[in-house]
Amino acid sequence: MHLKIDKLSKQWPGGVRALQDITLELKPGMFGLLGPNGAGKSTLMKIIATLELPDSGRVTFDGRNILRERAYLRNRLGYLPQFFGVYPQLTGAEFLRYIARLNGVPRSELQDRVMLMLEKVSLLSARDRKVKTYSGGMLRRLGIAQALVHDPALLIVDEPTVGLDPEERIRFRNLLTEISRDKIIILSTHIVGDISSTCEDIAILSHGRLVFRGSPGELTRKAAEKVWLLECDERDFAEVAEHLQIISTIPAGGRLQMRVVGEYQARFSMQQTTANLEDAYIYFMEEHMHQHQSAQTASG
Q1: What is the model's pLDDT at position 299?
Q2: pTM of the predicted protein model
Q3: Residues with Cβ within 8 Å of residue 12, at least 6 apart in sequence
Q4: Do residues 268 and 210 share a domain?
Q5: Are 115 and 56 part of one and the same domain?
Q6: What is the CA 161 to chain-centroid distance, rounded?
Q7: Could you say which of 173, 191, 215 is where a domain stops?
Q8: How confident is the model over 29-57, as a mean pLDDT?
Q9: CA angle (271, 273, 275) in 5-degree steps
Q10: pLDDT tens digits, residue range 132-148?
């Protein structure tokens, strides 16, 4: 099983470049796609899912051009977009049965597959409730179930944990890890915690370009010796923010205890600490943003 994205580009009307020469090769396992809102993640996911056409480049799955053979991929694809629609008058079980039939699940397996997926996303007790009565988190879990009900070979999930509480998020991560051995799973998100807990292979998109590809460890090492614990008076917050990227802030008796990334600043009381993936992502994106702005200034 092999997904290859080769020199993919997409430009929207008005000259906005959504994607620029994206090249990636993916094999079974969890692949994390990080990037800020507007980076091009959703556009890339829609092209892979055959919902958008690129201006140039191609995508192949097991050697077959999916932009020409859409039916071949769609029979093997599970897709959870950032926003997905439901039929509110159906019950959860009825909705899943409908999606399963659309995706070719044999009638002999239909009931077992639907019940299994409802159990995996903790909706079995709500299976006979109409979807219109579901909470936001329940709808998100139903979306996860509909993407998996036909046991796809390629699974694309775009911002999958939005609206889930911490326990649901952990449960979903564990589910993805469980099924990733024999599937290609693309997890697109701006929530770094979803990536750090599940993916050994990640990429970062910024302004439609692929700016990093590697392991979480490789990205984390880019922020080695750049992460600090800092304590200051509340009145000094603006000055700290001017020189350093703030990860977190805890007020404590008129002072602030902060976690920051950047270069050492002698004007502040700073203690070096070990970088994690979130630190590294923030540091990397800040550095890349400076480079991008410098390049734009030079070209202008």
Answers
A1: 60
A2: 0.86
A3: 18
A4: no
A5: yes
A6: 9
A7: 215
A8: 92
A9: 145
A10: 999 888 888 898 899 99
